[in-house]
Amino acid sequence: MRTNLRTRPTRPLTVVRNLGILAHVDAGKTTVTERFLYATGATHKRGEVHDGTTVTDFDPQERKRGITIFAAAVSCDWDGHRINLIDTPGHVDFSDEVERSLRVLDGAIAVFDAVAGVEPQSESVWRQADRHRVPRIAFVNKLDRAGADLDTAVASIRDRLHTVPLVVQLPIGREDGFTGVVDLVRMRALVWGAEGEAYEEGPVPEGLREEAGRRRRLLEETVAELHPGALEEFCAGAALRDATLAAALRDLTREGEGVVVLCGSAYRNRGVEPLLDAVVAYLPSPLDVPAVRGTLGGEVRERAADPAAPFAGLVFKVTSTATGRLTYVRVYAGTIEKGDTVLDATAGRTERVARILRVQADRNTEVDRALAGDIVAVVGPKSARAGATLCAPDAPLVFEPPSVAAPVVSVAVEARRSLDTDKLASALAQLVEEDPSLAVRTDAETGQTVLSGMGELHLEVAVEKIRRAQTLELNVGRPQVAYRETVARGVSGLLYRHVKQEGGAGQFAHVVLDVEPLEAAAGATGGSAEGFVFRSAVTGGRVPQEYVRAVEAGCRDALAEGPLGGHPVTGLRVTLADGATHSKDSSEMAFRTAGRLALREALRTSTMALLEPVIEVTVTVPDSVVGAVLGDLAARRGRVSGSAARAGTSVVTATVPLAELFGYASRLRGRTQGRGTFTTRPTGYAPVPAGVADTLPTR
Ligand SMILES: Nc1nc2c(ncn2[C@@H]2O[C@H](COP(=O)(O)OP(=O)(O)OP(=O)(O)O)[C@@H](O)[C@H]2O)c(=O)[nH]1
Ligand SMILES: [Mg+2]
């Protein structure tokens, strides 16, 4: 890690773009990032993913595996604008990293493979970006590949992402002969040289004039349909001026009413500069996005992106490096300066900002201050976690933290030498702090340390990171999936008496619980994303409010371990039907204990069902082996939901229990001589069939 002291002049916020690059694995996000850095002069050499020489894939594991694992931030300057960019991982196991990045971005580039079109993980990250209302532009990459076709890719954007594609370029040449694009907004041709250095701009070639005119017309019509200002001009003159078209495209992007589509080949350096132009032209600056909202004591507080306002920022990532603990902050309002004391409003602690760093992948530059709209790393805060709000101590507020997905796979880990046990424990604690989608617990029965995460690869990477950083020798168990338990048929009127009245302060709590499956109750409650709903039907004040809350807390305690195998319990509604108190011996503690023991008892008498995580798998294989692949999926309890064939390649989609998918990557490679690929997407939990459930170990 190199650091040099240099303070940059501050810039007006209108020229800042905070954006992320999102896509399915291997679409070319890191390559696009690399080309941005080169085109803007931030680097002087183009790195390649397959050579392990890119700026953003700097971690040894990323270089070895050729995939992005950790979101990396870089900055570059283009056309008088400062572009802060986060290159995100495409593999589904690291989607939490994407979620945390999306939370702090103002815009994004969605990259698609021109052969495959919209792939499952692109669809997932698109939905994530929808949820965060992040405006996007699309880049259809790899137009140089055999079988690449812009129109097919655009059709899949329309059909699978349910958005309106606003295609602003027409490719010149196909596949290997792809040399440039016609810019349909300015009606000019951009053609790159053999080495993909600077492009030459000229008139639209004769042979493409008609096609370009037709597509420009289509673009104008689509835009006029969506944009009232453009419609007015279109109706008046039956055409749109270039400036009106560009302004309307910007508005539509920011409103999320359509997506501007560009194309090119990042690897061959074609289409990169116009993509940078589009970032500047269409994606919003921090001033163009709505004021950010936080709360204080239940009251909503808004903060505009104003450097003069009280400071407020969100921590979205924490890493330990040779420079120390880096806390990545998106500054939403105000200014932080070196030496400031800030409040971690989430934890209620103050922290000191010793240094502020502008991060460029694994290098950084020290600055004196960071303003609203900036993304920086600070050194000094010792305990602020990802998701924490940092703010001026005299103007507190709390931002909603990014959501964290629940882990679905776990492995037991132990140090091979017992004297390394403490070292392993602290390494695991640090790992969890840096990646909130990992969790560590000690198994109550076996005493083993269990690490859980989002998938096999996620855990493999985590374990490898500890091995490398700590030079620890580890024993790692076989991966296990995280089961859950749910109520299939509940009980009503279960009476539990918690009474201890011999000597000293007594305990007295009577509770009566009804337990039912949440699905059955969903009509009445409107359902719950949380999987647990509690309500009280006690009348006449027989149980005071604070004791009702204590019973609810006790029930939540009981959900940690179900009766089938000690797995977390979900999908139920509990009603406190009745209860009784004692004037002297009742307390919140007594009711909490009663709630816990009552629900535990109720679950034991209910009919319970075991749930397992299920995954949608999309397998792409040569036609010749599709039979073997289908047979293998069936043996893994897979249910095929679709298949399609195109140009000798079959794509099979199936829902498979995660427990049956361990080792699938190497199995598929073997069956297809390395020509098969597959991607996965979690689809939730499903009941384990009776015959299988009987053979499972308990937790
Ligand atoms: N033919 C061709 N290959 C490309 C192009 N862009 C990227 N690639 C290659 O595709 C592979 C994946 O590219 P990356 O840039 O690592 O893709 P990514 O989206 O960052 O992948 P993850 O970070 O693992 O999700 C690499 O081997 C690239 O060299 C392109 O325009 N054309
Ligand atoms: Mg990458």
Please specify the SSE layout and strand pairing.
Blueprint: E1 3-5, E2 16-22, H1 29-39, H2 60-65, E3 72-78, E4 81-87, H3 95-102, E5 107-113, H4 120-131, E6 136-141, H5 150-161, E7 165-167, E8 169-172, E9 180-183, E10 188-192, E11 199-202, H6 209-226, H7 228-237, H8 242-255, E12 259-263, H9 272-282, E13 292-296, E14 299-303, E15 312-321, E16 324-333, E17 335-337, E18 341-344, E19 349-352, E20 355-360, E21 363-367, E22 369-371, E23 375-379, E24 389-391, E25 409-415, H10 421-434, E26 439-442, E27 449-453, H11 456-470, E28 474-476, E29 480-481, E30 484-489, E31 491-500, E32 507-517, H12 518-525, E33 532-536, H13 545-558, E34 569-570, E35 572-580, H14 588-605, E36 607-622, H15 626-635, E37 639-646, E38 649-657, H16 664-671, E39 677-687, H17 690-693
Helix pairs in contact: 6-7, 13-14
The chain binds guanosine-5'-triphosphate and magnesium ion.
Spell out the key features of this protein.
9-stranded mixed beta sheet, binds guanosine-5'-triphosphate, 39 strands, 17 helices, 28% helix, 7-stranded mixed beta sheet, globular, disordered N terminus, alpha+beta, 699 residues, binds magnesium ion
Give an overview of the whole structure:
The protein has 17 helices and 39 strands. Helices cover 28% and strands 33% of the residues. The two termini are 42 Å apart. The chain has 699 residues and is of the alpha+beta class. A hairpin with a 6-residue loop joins strand 31 (491-500) and strand 32. The strands form eight sheets. A nine-stranded mixed sheet has the order 1-21-20-23-16-15-24-18-19. Bound molecules: guanosine-5'-triphosphate (GTP) and magnesium ion. Guanosine-5'-triphosphate binds next to helix 1.
